[in-house]
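Before drawing any conclusions, I looked closely at one protein, both as residues and as discrete backbone shape codes, quoted below without any editing:
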Amino acid sequence: MALPLAYNVKSAFVRKGATLLTLTAIGFSVAVLVLVLALARGFETALSGTGSEDNLIFLRSSSTSEGVSGVTREAAKIVGAAEFVARDEEGTLLAQPEIYAAFSLPRAGGGNSNIPVRGTGPIGLEIRERTKIAAGGRMFVPGRYEIVVGQAMAPRLENCFLGSMVEMAGYPWRVVGILDSGGEAYDSEIWMDVEIFMRVLDRSGFSTLFARIQNRELLDTALTRLAEDPRLNLEAKSERQYFSEQAGALAIALKILAWFLAAIMGTGAVFGATNTLLASVAMRTREIGTLLAIGFSSRAVFFGFLIESVVIALVGGLLGVLLGYQCNGLATGTTNWATFTEQSFAFAVTPDVVLQAMLLSLLIGLIGGALPARRAARLSPCEALRTM
């Protein structure tokens, strides 16, 4: 005969007290998983979604980040004039040498954070097509002690708003613009004139060189030739690849943490589901005996109770997803392990996060329901019907 599904599903919600406790335990376990996975996904998205495949970043060979890279003025001049570099309508080469460093600045609400500061120029903004200066502000003027601040970072820093003065390296800098990159990593940076920044840091060279690609047919040959030039000692990556790599270690660590916490809480939820269904089996012994006596097989009873457990778990999982979804879009920040600077981003409850959350609830239902289902299936019809 078919599975007694209607009976099992209805029975799951007849005993409301025990079922509610199980739903709550599963819901909180799933919500914790959603929260931490959304944190990891938001951080990963902010970095891996940054940049373009049409832009190259040149770093010193074997450098892991801009902060430990170095590009000499001679190397920047050679690479910036390569045949694959695009030009704008006025014929200006779209290549911008930049310098990258971190400054400890006071946060709004107390404490300090290492904030990424980028020395660049007008070409640096032009190269990054999705990045613009928000309405009401402007780009800094080269040669002046002016800065533009990422829109995600501005509210996190003390007295950092359009028109305010921010002190860095012993110099006052006027905020003349708010940088809007649409949620990319640049929203967490402060930009200033590269030549001024180099004088402040007392450096003679740059950190990196960004360049827009114009002729991909010449690219491979040109990069091979540049890699063999002993004056350069540089390697090139696409802007998108570079920022994706920056997200790697911390994103993986957050995902491991998410499943570790979910496993601990999920274990408690499994015991809760098991106890609830074991008590349910004990209370429904005569009903189970009746099912077996009228022709339902032991296998049908087993799968019926297992599906009952899964239904409870999936409902609890949906509850957890709804709880966790409340954090979606919530702005936060953490330290990027690759650069040791603060990275602002937003929680992101994406479809893959929801899928993983529902997978956890399914596992809880299957594991928690296996023992009670087996016990129900092994009952003897005669003994079960004699039970008062």
The chain has two domains: 5-48+246-386, 62-232. The CA atoms of residues 61 and 234 lie 5 Å apart. The mean pLDDT is 85. The radius of gyration is 30 Å.
